[in-house]
TrEMBL record:
Subunit structure: Homodimer.
Pathway: One-carbon metabolism; tetrahydrofolate interconversion
Domain Tetrahydrofolate dehydrogenase/cyclohydrolase NAD(P)-binding: 157-305
Lineage, opening ranks: Bacteria, Bacillati, Actinomycetota, Actinomycetes, Micrococcales
Residues at which NADP(+) binds: 183-185, 251
Record protein name field: Bifunctional protein FolD
Keywords per UniProt: Amino-acid biosynthesis, Histidine biosynthesis, Hydrolase, Methionine biosynthesis, Multifunctional enzyme, NADP, One-carbon metabolism, Oxidoreductase, Purine biosynthesis
Reaction catalysis annotation: (6R)-5,10-methenyltetrahydrofolate + H2O = (6R)-10-formyltetrahydrofolate + H(+); (6R)-5,10-methylene-5,6,7,8-tetrahydrofolate + NADP(+) = (6R)-5,10-methenyltetrahydrofolate + NADPH
A single MF term (Gene Ontology): methylenetetrahydrofolate dehydrogenase (NADP+) activity
Gene3D superfamilies, per the entry: Leucine Dehydrogenase, chain A, domain 1 (3.40.50.10860), NAD(P)-binding Rossmann-like Domain (3.40.50.720)
EC number: 1.5.1.5, 3.5.4.9
CDD domains on file: NAD_bind_m-THF_DH_Cyclohyd
Length: 308
C-alpha cells in the first residue's frame, strides 16, 4: 500500500466520493496475467483451469461461464466438469481425483454453494492443495493463518485478495484503520481479516456476524466497511461514518419473473456515494476482481509447477 488517503472527518465528505472500479482494475490485472501466460507458453507450458459445477443454479452457471470467458481472454485452457444435482459425494470425489491427476489441469475450483446433500468441507479437503485455485483447501487457509509465504507462495482466497488489490490499486493505505467486516463466511469474512492484519497492511479488524450484539455501534465506528453478509441492502449508508471506505461484497441475485432477467444487489443500500470517501459498487466492484484473482492463482500455480 502506498499513498495515505485518510478518510475525511467532516460532514460534507461524501460529496467527492470516488469509485473503486473493479472492472477497470481487473482488466489491468488480466493484461499483466496474459503476459505471464505468454511467457509460460513460450516455455511449452499452457495453464489450465478446471471448474466443477454440481447442479443447475443459474447464478453459479453464470459465474462459471464468466470464469471460462476470462480464461480465453488471457490464454488459459478451460476444463469444464458439469454434474447433475443428484450427484453423490462419492461421484463428486471421484471427479476431483481425476482433476488431481490430470496434467492438463493446473488448478481447479468447485463452484459453491454445493447442493445441500454434499459435504462442502470434505469436498474442499479432497482438492489437491497444489491445484487449489480458490485457496480454500485447509492447508492453504492454514498457511494464511500461519502467515507463511516462503518458499512457496500459497494461493489466497480470491475475493479477499481482490478486495486488498482493489484498495491497493487506488493507493488506499489502511495502516491503523479500523475495518469492520460483516459476515464470517469462509470465502470472504474469515480470510479477509487475516489479510488485512498482515504487517504490510496493518489494519485493525472487527469481524461482525449474526451473533454480534450491536452491529450498528460497530458500523458507526468503522473507517472501512467490508459488507460480506449476502443480505440485500442490510446496511444503510446513514449508519456509516462520513468519509468511510465502503466495499460492498455480498451478492443477492434476484430474477424478475416477468422478464427472466437477473439483477444483482449488494449488502449496502443505495446512497453510499453521499457518505463514503471511496466505495466499490455492486455489481462492478469486487466481483470482477474475484474472477481476476482466480486467474492469478492458476498462473501462479503453473509457474510454481514449472520452475526453471
Ligand atoms: N468456488 C467458489 N465459489 C464461489 C465463489 C468463489 O470465490 N469460489 N464466490 C462466489 C461467486 N463468484 C465466484 O465464483 C463470483 C461472484 C460474482 C462475480 C462477478 O463478477 N459479478 C459481477 C456481476 C455478474 C452478474 O451480473 O451476474 C460484478 O460484481 O460485477 C464473479 C464471481 C460464490 N461462489
Amino acid at each position: 500500500m502506498t499513498e495515505n488517503l485518510n478518510a475525511p472527518q467532516n460532514d460534507d465528505a461524501g460529496s467527492n466520493a470516488q469509485l473503486l472500479d473493479g472492472r477497470a482494475t481487473a482488466k489491468a490485472l488480466k493484461t499483466d496475467l496474459a503476459e505471464r501466460v505468454s511467457a509460460l507458453k513460450a516455455r511449452g507450458v499452457t495453464p489450465g483451469l478446471g471448474t466443477v459445477l454440481v447442479g443447475a443454479d443459474p447464478g453459479s452457471q453464470s459465474y462459471v461461464a464468466g470464469k471460462h470467458r476470462d480464461c480465453a481472454e488471457v490464454g488459459i485452457n478451460s476444463i469444464e466438469v458439469q454434474l447433475g444435482e443428484d450427484t453423490t459425494q462419492e461421484e463428486l470425489l471421484a471427479e476431483l481425483e481425476k482433476l488431481n491427476h490430470d496434467p492438463a489441469c493446473t488448478g481447479y475450483i468447485v463452484q459453491l454453494p454445493l447442493p445441500k446433500h454434499l459435504d462442502t468441507q470434505k469436498v474442499l479437503e479432497a482438492i489437491s492443495p497444489e491445484k487449489d485455485a480458490d485457496g480454500l483447501h485447509p492447508m492453504n487457509l492454514g498457511r494464511l493463518v500461519a502467515n507463511v509465504n516462503e518458499p512457496i507462495s500459497s494461493p489466497l482466497p480470491c475475493t479477499p485478495k481482490g478486495c486488498v488489490d482493489l484498495l491497493d490499486h487506488y493507493g488506499l493505505d489502511l495502516k491503523g484503520k479500523h475495518v469492520v467486516v460483516v459476515g464470517r463466511g469462509v470465502t470472504i469474512g474469515r480470510p479477509i481479516g487475516l489479510l488485512l492484519t498482515r504487517r504490510d497492511v496493518n489494519a485493525t479488524v472487527t469481524l461482525c456476524h449474526t451473533g454480534t450484539q450491536d452491529l450498528a455501534a460497530h458500523l458507526a465506528q468503522a473507517d472501512v466497511v467490508v459488507a460480506a453478509a449476502g443480505v440485500k441492502h442490510m446496511i444503510e449508508p446513514a449508519q456509516l461514518k462520513a468519509g468511510v471506505i465502503a466495499l460492498d461484497v455480498g451478492v443477492t441475485r434476484e430474477v424478475n419473473p416477468e422478464t427472466g432477467k437477473a439483477k444483482i444487489y449488494g449488502d449496502i443500500a443505495p446512497g453510499i456515494e453521499s457518505v463514503a470517501s471511496w466505495y466499490s459498487p455492486n455489481p462492478g466492484g469486487v466481483g470482477p476482481m474475484t474472477r481476476a484473482e482466480l486467474l492469478a492463482n492458476v498462473v501462479l500455480a503453473a509457474e510454481q509447477q514449472n520452475q526453471e
